[in-house]
Amino acid sequence: MPQSDNQLVEEIISGNESAMEVLVKRHYDMVYSFICRYVGEYNIACDLTQDTFIKVMKNIGKYNHKHGEFRSWILKIAVNTSKDYFKSSAYKQRNQSDDVDNCHLKSSDDVIHLLDKKQERKEIKQAVDELPTLQREAIILKYFHDLKIREISKMTGEKEATIKSRIFSGIKNLKKRLGGEGEDEKRRIAR
């Protein structure tokens, strides 16, 4: 039976480097896909994912499972690393590109299905990118990473009502941008 995240954290603190490798492998794709969606650039997402894991390992002793799941803790670090990037001079000087096609999708749809959805994904990606930062963050965490409102609230330090409001406003803005109505849009966003 695989070790839990908490067990791996305890082993890392004890000096077990192989436990660190297991923990990184377990969460790398999740962190990378979040950052890729958040910043919208493949190469930057790779760098920021590495930065996130460096911060995780430097601060692993500060993790306390009583304050939430490891998954939420590591995503909080990824959110903060991404926000730091947007504040950096490197971001301000850099030309943003639309290299999103290199981002990995969460689902494992077959190739033909993915090709059929390519245009739809581009439209959704562009619409999500155009959302205000706080709405985009809430939408990505809720619908792309299946986090609960309370988990997002803990990660961001905002009240649950604030997160719900951001998600509601984000969905409303996405409907306007995508020209859709009702639950169909919510389902499109969640893919």
Description:
This protein has 191 residues and is an all-alpha fold. The chain folds into 2 domains: 1-104, Rna Polymerase Sigma Factor, Chain: A, CATH 1.10.1740.10; 108-191, Orthogonal Bundle (Arc Repressor Mutant, subunit A). It is built from 10 helices and no strands. Helix 2 packs antiparallel against helix 3 (42-58) and helix 4 crosses helix 8 (149-156). The protein is globular, with a radius of gyration of 17 Å.
The CATH superfamily of the largest domain is known as: RNA polymerase sigma factor, region 2, helix turn helix motif
Structural class: mainly alpha
Might you state the CATH topology name of the largest domain?
Rna Polymerase Sigma Factor, Chain: A
Separation, N- and C-terminal Cα atoms? 30 Å
Instruction: Please give the domain count.
Output: 2
> Which oligomerization state do the chains in this entry correspond to?
single chain
Number of helices: 10
The percentage helix is over 70%
Mean pLDDT: 79
Q: What is the β-strand count?
A: 0
Q: What is the CA-based Rg, rounded?
A: 17 Å
Tell me the strand percentage band.
under 5%
CATH class of the largest domain: Mainly Alpha
GO molecular function, one term: sigma factor activity
Protein name: RNA polymerase sigma factor
Pfam families: Sigma70_r2, Sigma70_r4_2
Organism: Oceanirhabdus seepicola
